[in-house]
Amino acid sequence: MRLHRNLCFSVIDGLTLIFNEGKYADKVIQQLLKRDKRWGARDRAFVAETTYDIVRWKRLYAEIAEVKEPFDRDNLWRMFAVWATLKGIKLPDWKYFENTPTRKIKGRFDELSKTRKLRESIPDWIDNVGLEELGEAKWTKEIAKQNEQADVILRTNTLKTTKEKLQNILHDQGIATEFIKGHDSALRLIERANVFVTDAFQKGLFEVQDASSQLVADFLDVKPGMKVVDTCAGAGGKTLHIASLMENKGQIVAMDIYESKLKKLKVRARRNGVHNVELKVIDSTKPIKKLYNKADRVLIDAPCSGLGVLRRNPDAKWKLEPEFLDRIRATQQDVLQQYSRMVKPEGKLVYATCSVLPSENQNQIKTFLKSEAGANFSLIKDKNVFAHTSGFDGFYMALLERKG
Ligand SMILES: C[S@@+](CC[C@H](N)C(=O)[O-])C[C@H]1O[C@@H](n2cnc3c(N)ncnc32)[C@H](O)[C@@H]1O
């Protein structure tokens, strides 16, 4: 691979914004990709993947390069040189790469890789939490898998097409996909591609959604005609899936504390041809209380640490803080206590997170079931999905039923 100056400069600019100005990696990369209209698919992939890679391996590369935060541009070039050297890419004779100690970089990589938190490039505290909650063997495998790039997975919008038809349509546009066993609506891209620019996407034939995330709506056991409340709907990944499973029949109330997210859901629903979703901002306890005992199904896709989706959001490793984790655990129990009241007798509730930590998952369910609000419920089944065993995102989901 040959390094191109303007692409490498873009990566360094992006890293400055992410590391030094606290900007979100996905947003920064989105902006970077708009920089030069002449960039082809490969150039764009280089900028996106190299930036994500250096974000993912920040701690390890900074240790190898012997630089400390806040990083100046020279520091970032040194980290870039580490990235290129470890990838076996020949460094051009630009001034930024003068005196790059290639052999020393490889030696330090081997040495530092003996320690998990350095090898996997994670803060000490995350390593400690993972170790404490999952044990050495599981945590070591899971965090390694969480550092790999995730596949692109699509969910067929069955309101508009079938998985087989979608596969053919994408094939005609040069995008090869395969089915995934156990995931009825999913297609996996065999090679990465920008699917958002396809006609099929504009027409709402699919959404991009990881295979684990696609299990959640299935878990909720919805039927056409039901009244379903999606309490933490965000931009609606799961709401849209639920609408497909309900064949647009019945009613879905999609709620979130952020109106901005629900606005995105509105746009997506229109593209998907979804007609049975009502949006409600949670700005007080009123909209919740109004729905007490009314819903056949309630989904709590709870806010969480995101420790199951680091493959997609590698900068979360650096943004997460122990205090946030404590606060979010309290929120998780709180939403379980409050939102479970919307389930009617014999109705069902799914609690889900994209975390692999038991303290955000099964332990929350145990606490809930022992509480007064939880005494009305019984656990039907739950499922832990780990990236290292499934190959998809880390997730947890529990299905509870309210007694009659
Ligand atoms: C895991 S995300 C939801 C993802 C979304 N369900 C999807 O499938 O695309 C959690 C959501 O919970 C929302 N949230 C945070 N605290 C909340 C609360 N107390 N009540 C309702 N929603 C909340 C966040 O704004 C966020 O959109």
From TrEMBL:
Q: Among its keywords, does the record have S-adenosyl-L-methionine?
A: yes
Q: Which residues form the SAM-dependent MTase RsmB/NOP-type domain?
A: 142-403
This protein's UniProt keywords: Methyltransferase, RNA-binding, S-adenosyl-L-methionine, Transferase
Active site: residue positions:
354 (nucleophile)
Give the molecular function GO annotations.
methyltransferase activity
Q: Under which main EC class is this enzyme filed?
A: transferase
- InterPro entries associated with the record: MeTrfase_RsmB-F_NOP2_cat, MeTrfase_RsmB-F_NOP2_dom, RCMT, RsmB-like_ferredoxin, SAM-dependent_MTases_sf
PROSITE patterns in UniProt: SAM_MT_RSMB_NOP
Give TM segment ranges: none
Q: Which GO terms describe its biological process?
A: methylation
- The EC number on file is 2.1.1.-
Q: S-adenosyl-L-methionine: is it a keyword of this entry?
A: yes
Positions that bind S-adenosyl-L-methionine: 256, 283, 301
Q: Which family does it belong to?
A: Belongs to the class I-like SAM-binding methyltransferase superfamily. RsmB/NOP family.
Q: What is this protein called?
A: RsmB/NOP family class I SAM-dependent RNA methyltransferase
Q: Which organism is it from?
A: Flavivirga amylovorans
